[in-house]
Amino acid sequence: MRTRPLKVALLGCGVVGSEVARIMTTHADDLAARIGAPVELAGVAVRRPSKVREGIDPALVTTDATALVKRGDIDVVVEVIGGIEPARTLITTAFEHGASVVSANKALLAQDGAALHAAAGQHGKDLYYEAAVAGAIPLIRPLRESLAGDKVNRVLGIVNGTTNFILDKMDSTGAGYQEALDEATALGYAEADPTADVEGFDAAAKAAILAGIAFHTRVRLDDVYREGMTEVTAADFRSATEMGCTIKLLAICERARDGASVTARVHPAMIPLSHPLASVRGAYNAVFVESDAAGQLMFYGPGAGGSPTASAVLGDLVAVCRNRLNGTTGPGESAYADLTVSSMGEVVTRYHISLDVADKPGVLAQVATVFAEHGVSIDTVRQQGKDGEASLVVVTHRASDASLTGTVEALRKLDTVRGVASIMRVEGE
Amino acid sequence: MRTRPLKVALLGCGVVGSEVARIMTTHADDLAARIGAPVELAGVAVRRPSKVREGIDPALVTTDATALVKRGDIDVVVEVIGGIEPARTLITTAFEHGASVVSANKALLAQDGAALHAAAGQHGKDLYYEAAVAGAIPLIRPLRESLAGDKVNRVLGIVNGTTNFILDKMDSTGAGYQEALDEATALGYAEADPTADVEGFDAAAKAAILAGIAFHTRVRLDDVYREGMTEVTAADFRSATEMGCTIKLLAICERARDGASVTARVHPAMIPLSHPLASVRGAYNAVFVESDAAGQLMFYGPGAGGSPTASAVLGDLVAVCRNRLNGTTGPGESAYADLTVSSMGEVVTRYHISLDVADKPGVLAQVATVFAEHGVSIDTVRQQGKDGEASLVVVTHRASDASLTGTVEALRKLDTVRGVASIMRVEGE
């Protein structure tokens, strides 16, 4: 084994960073044996240097992250700051100064992955980011390497633990959205400002990353259709139960049936209780992958948290260090397929639509005509009358999102339709 | 991209091999783009050359596998013959003649993995075998690479599709073992001679491979305790149901709580219905991995079949070809931890024991005394009397297998114990 250690600079020492530093110390012998050389924590860039960090030599702590990545003797920079800047500049500076990079930064990778990969490639360095998607669950590596000889057609997953916790709570207790969110906040599963999670921004970033890798095509964050889960109601869950379904916030990356284009989207959806994703509880994540040869695979585990994320970071660190010792790099960006990324209108799926309608004869015929005129075929209809008002629940066959949108616009114009109570996609069948 | 192709020799052209050849042809452009050079099927060694093989140039077919691997211009040998010989000699010959190897051969890897890894290392070549365990499910790569920075404590999995199909059928229909086996055979899930599957030999080979990788320790096939599932009865399933459990044939690789030793075993076991492995249906496989930092991960998918296995083989092929172009090799055997592999007696778990006893006062006291004398603490007891006979179902707390064995021997000597109807371990709690 080489005795000269590989030097690691840690950018950020919060929940994830402190766990990375801890494991680097406690598991130093194992890491050295697995890499073939010891790894040494050479510096830790933080915002608040005065904070006591147990187990970290205060002499390593600096507030000057730029100087740290510019030192020139750093082998690997571990970036766990998050956000776009200064992370982006620090990562490119690291490449320029000879370091490879391990990052957990989904927002940055989703927004600027192509440029960062280009910078890594230009300098012959590695950029690894298993921790950016679904925490500890090995997902990037299986998609990028294990399935490298296969053709992935769909990635369907629960990639945000906060929203899964909230939806699971609503499902199991009948609580409304706000009540379940309050509990998630109290238990530390949701942040004080939960926007990134509940509005689907976090999941959309992960969907962009997953779609890019799965389809060997650049998928920008803007390409991902995004709909949060704040409008999901207890009534929606009752409807889902009647259909033998539950509701999950899903990230769905799909190849069109003709193979020529792909889509990526994040939205709440009903899925059958028999689907493996339906039983993913609490803050867990799970991702279903469908490919030509392998068929259906599922990857399940904790999607967030300091330790799980640190596990993913350290797995990447070992790989990057091994590559460095071998004088090589791992697989970089693979975007050769360059497929068209279609908009949401092209997505084809099924829909569950609840309408508030007048309780009088002929309404169903009117509604059914609107569906037919827009080429949306109806699977089932259920009518419930109450006090002169009635609700009509329509479940469609597969139709394009554009056709469904046209249908709903036309429905809203009918005198007999008082309102569209909810529209929910039905997936995983 | 390099234009000179990498040459692949395929040993075996059965269900898996023909699928590997087919995908190499139909996905040639994708494979070339992902590898960075085209791959060419340079030869196919078969036993029956006269058989028509659609899509394979007859000029490539040979019965002389040895001459094929000795050609000297082969970059990668794909071995999908199975069995010990001639596969072992062909693989070592391939290394000697400059080729790297992708194998799907669990029996060979479990028996001679160390020697094969040594041969690969000696010649600076790769030995990859993702397809040897759990078909298409990425498992070797996640354990060996994604979790390289973590400490794996347990691998608990359903790694044999045939037995899972049979047990699932028994569970869902109340059928007995023979009836369920007959159905599995009729549907092609079980071979004419099902011994390797139902007696746990296949799962034991996979357990040895998984334990070796998970614990960075050589685990020989002989180190794996093995108990088949032919004795599992419909009555066992009724008992399991009463406990809120089902029965699965599990491969379990565990680190002892003191961290100094490991065990590997294959046997039927009760697991709670709430455990994710309980809902693995039909011929699917799933493996649960528990580690210090990542927590609980699960990997699920088709565990066998031509296409899924070919997917795993081709993923390895892409990786090995990339390594070759980069003039490097991937991670080899990692056995540095060299932990003690303990025997079954050291395994600590819970037990479900059904006894046929005389229906008279004092029997429970006698039985309970035997458990106490052997240091096995009882969790619950259920007595059922019928026609002068009674059954006693005891569920224990955690105890060593050695203590349990001693207890059962002593129970058999009691006059009041007519027989030990079944002993089943309880896992996954």
Automatic annotation (TrEMBL), chains A, B:
Cofactor(s) needed by this chain: a metal cation
Cross-referenced CDD domains: ACT_HSDH-Hom
One Pfam family per UniProt: ACT
Active site per the UniProt annotation: 206
Keyword NADP listed: yes
ACT domain sequence ranges: 352-425
Binding site for NADP(+): 11-18
GO MF entries: homoserine dehydrogenase activity; metal ion binding; NADP binding
An annotated GO BP: methionine biosynthetic process
Binding site for L-homoserine: 191
Sites where the protein binds NADPH: 106
Keywords: Amino-acid biosynthesis, Metal-binding, Methionine biosynthesis, NAD, NADP, Oxidoreductase, Sodium, Threonine biosynthesis
Pathway: Amino-acid biosynthesis; L-threonine biosynthesis; L-threonine from L-aspartate: step 3/5; Amino-acid biosynthesis; L-methionine biosynthesis via de novo pathway; L-homoserine from L-aspartate: step 3/3
Taxonomic superkingdom: Bacteria
InterPro entries membership: ACT-like_dom_sf, ACT_dom, Asp/hSer_DH_NAD-bd, HDH, HDH_cat, HDH_CS, NAD(P)-bd_dom_sf
Similarity-based family: Belongs to the homoserine dehydrogenase family.
Role according to the record: Catalyzes the conversion of L-aspartate-beta-semialdehyde (L-Asa) to L-homoserine (L-Hse), the third step in the biosynthesis of threonine and methionine from aspartate.
Name this protein carries in UniProt: Homoserine dehydrogenase
